[in-house]
Write a structure and sequence with these properties.
Elements lengths: L1 H12 L4 E6 L6 H12 L5 E6 L6 H11 L3 E2 L15 H11 L8 H14 L9 H8 L7 H5 L4 H14 L2
Parallel strand pairs: 1-2, 2-3
Helix pairs in contact: 2-3
Amino acid sequence: IKRIQRLAQEVSNIGANAFYLADSNGSLDPLDFAMLVNAIGSVADISVGVHTHNHRGLALSNTISAVDAGATWVDSAVRGMGKGAGNLIMEQWITYLVQHRELSENFDFGHLLELSDMLATDVPESAPQMDSVNLLMGYFNLPVECTQQISTINDYDTCIKVAKRLSKIGQ
């Protein structure tokens, strides 16, 4: 926390107008995001943004928690397209905003859903992967570079042991 606070102060002092928190490994949870956003707000007068990944199925919950704590910038992608298990799914985020944050419905949600369906049909890579490998990557806070080492193991007990070892190496 202290390191994030120090970085937020430094970038604020040099004139940055936003500080982004990126959960690239999908390993944070809603309490982590709330704590980090609050910690930044306590030391720097700077907007906070979040970039969440969905390795543990928490991208939407993490984003809601961050916004509740004061984040004002949010990344999302149609169908959640992004590395591994993907990012915050835009379609879910928009429905949440309309239902719970009084977001105006002055946009064409039908067009967004058509785009989502078109991508699902025409771009197979657009489907985020919520598989065991990505779940382990998020659970052990492993970067995408470790995916190959984990995905080639067929025995889950061995896979978990390797993931634990890799997570200790990266610390």
